[in-house]
Request: fold
Amino acid sequence: MPDSKKYLHPEAVARVARLDLRARYVVEGFFSGLHRSRYFGRSIEFLQHRQYVPGDDPRHVDWKVWARKDRLYVKQYEEDTNLRCTLLVDASRSMHYGSGPLNKFDYACSLAASVAYLSLHQHDSVACTVFDEEVRASLPHRSRFAQLHEIIKAFDVAEPAGKTDMHRILRETAETLPRRGLVVLFSDLLAEREGFFRGIRLLRQRGHDVLVFQILDDDELDFPFTGPVRFDAAESTNHLTCNPRLLKEGYLEALQTFLEEVCRGCAQNRADYQLIRTSDPLDMALTTMLASRARRGRATA
Reply:
């Protein structure tokens, strides 16, 4: 039996439960809910008229307009639909690193569980994929709250290992999702960047809203090491023993270049991006991203 409190922190959830996780772009779905669909359907909100063509359902004819203009017009409505949220959690070997209470994988799982809770709380459907080079676990979209237990169970049995094939995972996700929705990626993004950008671009071309949480440990961001240290490669057997003081300046410069490239690539592909430390409180990480998305949503409305 998985321990739900291991990844779903009640204190963080309580502070962010009122936040509404909404996609900024139009989505589609099967059921009536909170989110706008790009397709016309039967709903309570009138959108526009169009001229009647043979084969249209007579029930949609606006007879009052016909009485005034002696022409047949049908009513079109904007359909309210549920959001389909897909969580992608990186379980490659580099995600095992951690210098605090939570390593990067545990933090990613905690954050993903919180996003799943918020989505299910507002009656959206959630799917989850745990991956490295390949898909390690995959859960289809469900809107019942029991889905949260299944997601946590998938996290509980996963152990970070293997390399990352980001392009393959994002491409397969884009190819298998039948409807537009929100795709949320949790990863340190220590992978080939061009493949990552191509995958994000493909998801956006398919109409998905994309949210990227890049999760890094404080050690990776601050490089606090002193004295002789052995550094092991994140996703290979290579290692380096050296005096870290000689490397710090060059490392931090390279890191800044890497982070700027990731941020710029996400912006160019219209994906929301948030860098998070594993020492950041979970509710703060969620609040910062959701508030930023809400501001951009108002700006584009």
